[in-house]
Amino acid sequence: MSQTHVVTVVDPSTQQAEADWQLSVEWITLRIRWFGLIVGYLVVNTLSPVEHRGALNGILCVGAGYALLDLVWHWRGEVFLSRFPLFISLMEAFFIGLLCYFDKGIDSFFRYYYFLSLLVCAIRYSPFVAYSTFAMHATSYSMLVFTLTSATLDQVGTLVLMIVFMGWTTWASTSLTILLRETGRKLTALNRNLEDRIARRTRDLQQSQALLIQGEKQAAFGLLAAGIAHEVGNPLAAISSLVQLMNRKKLEPEMHERLGLVDEQLLRIQRTLRELIEFSRPGLQQITRFDVHDVINNALNIAKYYKRKKGKTITTRFAEELPQVSAVRDQILQVFLNLILNAMDATSEGGTIEIETRFVESSLLISFRDNGRGIAEEEREKLFEPYFTTKSTGTGLGLFICRNILTAMNGEIRLQESLLGRTTFVVMLPVLPEYESLTV
Ligand code: ADP
Ligand code: MG
């Protein structure tokens, strides 16, 4: 048999606000109650003589005992008998009735206690409890009128007036309390909203800061690379022409061969330098149309200089007819390179990395799959956050920058799967409809 559980989820901060409200209200009512007791005691013992002073003091003592329990509970951070408000009201109606009974009947000073009790009840409890208390107090006072007096027109008039004023007090204090509670609730909601907004803004700020720092670093690296290229490139060119000059001279064939080898190596160094400079110079931010396969090859060409490339196989599976994409070429190159380098970091010697392209529903899908260490479940949700890295020399900005670049151009990057030995990141690049027919 199936069972349905209804679970009411109460937000902890709302619960806390409600508890705080209860305690503050309790503190107000406690003081009002003690004030009433002291005034009552003074009235009974200092003003005009009353017949049943002993009984009245006794009832006041019971009231003080109750107020004391209330106070102790308050110090413990709880509300005394909070679950039985109607029982408290009933006791109050009874005791106030008794006080009036032993004092001067329906004209007793203690009849004002009904108002005090209603006020306290309205600010502490729900309107239902407040109006029920009103009904009890009205009954209590009516019983006084009908048991102590002969219920003349005057006395019934007093009763009606008392009931009207009691109702009035209940109404006014209940309305005020509802208003206060509503305002409090709205303020709490506003506050929470504000906290959320501040948290969001802070995160945005951190992200733009990360982007800025990365931009600065890249610019500095570009300048340095250009400087190094100049410093190394010029002597290299000089050495190369000297070698060529020497090679034109009449030398032993073995020497010619060696000089040829030296020149070949020099050319290789120059090519490497050129490629690195090409990559590190501050790129053009212009949108152009290009072939994605070219950019992947370009990224692979640069990645081959990476130390960790050693012993790893990279295979490509390119789709046959792929439309061109419109984007900032350098940025896409950066995305691909980041993914390739990450895959290299994740694999150990002998590992393989597979790059595959596909064209599906107006998008180019480029997947980067490696058979490396995989990504632990708890790491997955943090992958694209700035500064999240598990490497001692990592920046944690690679995937974050990739996502920024791609979302800015309506593209996408996501982790498709990640098991031990099979991790796939997929990049989606949108293709504008007018380019779809223009295959490469
Ligand atoms: P970084 O490479 O500087 O650490 P990234 O943003 O490029 O920063 O990557 C963040 C983290 O994501 C890496 O530190 C790594 O733990 C994890 N990661 C990224 N790609 C892979 C992958 N192919 N295999 C396993 N972990 C990966
Ligand atoms: Mg990286």
Number of helices: 12
Uncertain runs with pLDDT below 50, 5 residues or more? 1-8
How many strands? 7
The helix/strand class is alpha+beta
What characteristics describe this protein?
440 residues, alpha+beta, Helix Hairpins, Heat Shock Protein 90, 3 domains, two-stranded antiparallel ribbon, 12 helices, disordered N terminus, binds adenosine-5'-diphosphate, binds magnesium ion
What does this structure look like?
The chain has 440 residues and is of the alpha+beta class. The chain has three domains: 186 residues, no CATH class; 71 residues, Helix Hairpins (Orthogonal Bundle); 149 residues, Histidine kinase-like ATPase, C-terminal domain (Heat Shock Protein 90, 2-Layer Sandwich), CATH 3.30.565.10. Helices cover 65% and strands 11% of the residues. The chain is built from twelve helices and seven strands. The strands form two sheets. It has a five-stranded mixed β-sheet with strand order 2-4-5-7-6, covered by helices on one side. It has a two-stranded antiparallel sheet with strand order 1-3. Strand 6 and strand 7 form a beta hairpin. Helix 3 packs parallel to helix 5. The chain is rod-shaped. The N terminus is likely disordered. The site of adenosine-5'-diphosphate has 21 residues, from helix 9 and helix 11.
